[in-house]
Amino acid sequence: MRSTYHHSPNVWIRALAVLPLFALAVGCELRQAMYDQPKYRPLQESSFFENGMASRPLIEGTVARGLLEDDPHLFEGRVDGVFVDSFPFDVTAEVINRGQQRYNIFCAPCHDAAGNGNGIIVRRGFKPPTSFHDQRLVDSPEGYYYNVIKNGFGVMMDYSAQIPVHDRWAIIAYIRALQLTQRATIDDVPENLRADLQGQR
Q1: Cα 138 from Cα 175, distance rounded (Å)
Q2: How far apart are the C-alpha atoms of 96 and 170, rounded to whole Å?
């Protein structure tokens, strides 16, 4: 005769509760075994290689992938040690829009939205920066702006960690657009758009 066992629901609940603990114990055991296995850490002392280390030294001139900054115009804003007066890529409406977005985040707190140097930080007592519409800055080459963003200037901190390379140039493009708004004439507007502007006067 075949016997049938009936267990109360509580027995099954207890059994299910124990399963995660069992899995955790097995996982910890595997992790510990992998952690404790024989291995060398980078450049640790070893007799395996002639240099006495566990790793081979990097070949001279090795550069981490993606960090080869081989374009001084793009990465330094200089060519032959001189600030460039041009952009390393085409300035499009998309670039300027990106520059405006980044400018509003990183620059406007001090320089204000129009670039006059009267941002909210200045109104709270911080030293005002020179207006972007000052003739000295209007005449400054693009590479000068890039250098200031990357390395800082005066009381301005560097933004090399916060602003990637292409965004620095986008901000400069937007600053140039801001400067143009203060000095542009109707002749600077494309002919197909002049009628619209003149109709808004």
Answers
A1: 9
A2: 6
pLDDT at 38: 75
Show Cβ contacts of residue 187 under 8 Å, excluding neighbours closer than 6 positions.
none
Q: Is residue 107 classed exposed, middle or buried when 0-12, 13-18 and 19+ CB atoms within 10 A define those classes?
A: buried
- Closest by CA position to 156, among listed 167, 147, 164, 165: 147
* CA dihedral angle for residue 44, residue 47, residue 53, residue 59, rounded to 10 degrees: -150
Q: What span, in angstroms and rounded, lies between the C-alpha atoms of 7 and 83?
A: 83
CA pair distance 182, 200, nearest whole angstrom: 18
Contact present, 159 and 172 (Cβ < 8 Å): no
- Kindly give the parts of the chain with pLDDT less than 70: 1-35, 198-201
- Residue 139 phi, psi (nearest 5): -85, -10
User: In this structure, are residues 88 and 71 in contact, taking their beta carbons and an 8 Å threshold?
Assistant: yes
End-to-end CA distance of the chain: 104
Residue 86 contacts residue 169 (beta carbons within 8 Å) = no
- pLDDT per residue over 132-143, tens digit each? 999 999 999 999
pTM score, two decimals? 0.67
Structure letter (DSSP) for residue 68 = -
